[in-house]
Specification:
Elements (H helix, E strand, L loop, with lengths): L11 H22 L6 H7 L4 H4 L6 H25 L6 H13 L2 H12 L7 H26 L3 H22 L3 H9 L10 H16 L8
């Protein structure tokens, strides 16, 4: 991009365009390197800005990625609800499979799910955390309507189910992406086979067991 394109944004519209460019750059870098390894300097360089100029738009690196986590929640929720909405009825195992498949299809979101409570929420303003938590709560409520329709889950059961799914997806993604040297070690020694993790099948098994433990049945046939 040409240098004039990165002069300080003066209008609300220009500021919004600049913020979106920063988010797009962070998203691309996160996909390429993993969220943990992307610095504020990296993001600034990707959009042709100095780091100090970027801080006019976002308070910290963590705020940028927390915004992307909220975006991920909205996109994942929409995909999952589209899947569930096409079903007249479903078993707990089918619901578990749908949740696991839609999460595993979003590797950067899984990465962000792990980073959010560990790092991202801890280096932003209280208002940023509040906004993020309310955004996720809204998506959980929307998903909850489908889970209640299909399985009869209560509000608390929905919160527990989604919390289990998203926290485990974040942890499993970290385990499934150990880096080439560790992956070579794990695959070269049969005794370390348990360390080779595939997110979707393991998440499906755990969620199926979790929902079975709640004692839920297909709402249409219960």
């Amino acid at each position: 991009m040409s240098e004039p394109a990165f002069r300080r944004a003066r209008s609300a519209e220009a500021k919004q365009v600049r913020e979106q460019a920063i988010l797009d750059a962070a998203r691309t870098l996160g996909h390429q390197r993993g969220v943990r390894d992307v610095t504020l300097t990296d993001i600034a360089a990707a959009v042709g800005m100095h780091k100090s100029a970027l801080l006019r738009y976002f308070e910290t690196r963590e705020q940028i990625f927390l915004e992307l986590t909220a975006e991920g929640w909205r996109q994942w929720s929409a995909d999952l609800r589209a899947d569930l909405g096409r079903r007249v009825q479903a078993t707990p195992a089918e619901i578990a499979g749908a949740v696991a498949a839609t999460l595993a299809a979003r590797p950067m979101f899984c990465d962000l799910l792990a980073q959010a409570p560990l790092n991202l929420e801890r280096n932003v303003s209280i208002e940023s955390v509040r906004s993020f938590k309310l955004a996720t709560l809204h998506e959980i409520e929307l998903i909850g309507a489908e889970l209640h329709r299909l399985l009869g889950l209560t509000e608390l059961q929905t919160v527990d189910t989604i919390a289990t799914a998203t926290s485990l997806a974040g942890a499993l993604w970290q385990m499934a992406t150990p880096g080439p040297r560790l992956r070579e070690l794990y695959t070269s020694d049969p005794r370390l086979g348990h360390a080779v993790v595939e997110v979707e099948p393991r998440l499906t098994r755990v969620l199926t067991a979790f929902l079975a433990g709640l004692g839920v049945e297909t709402a249409a046939t219960a």
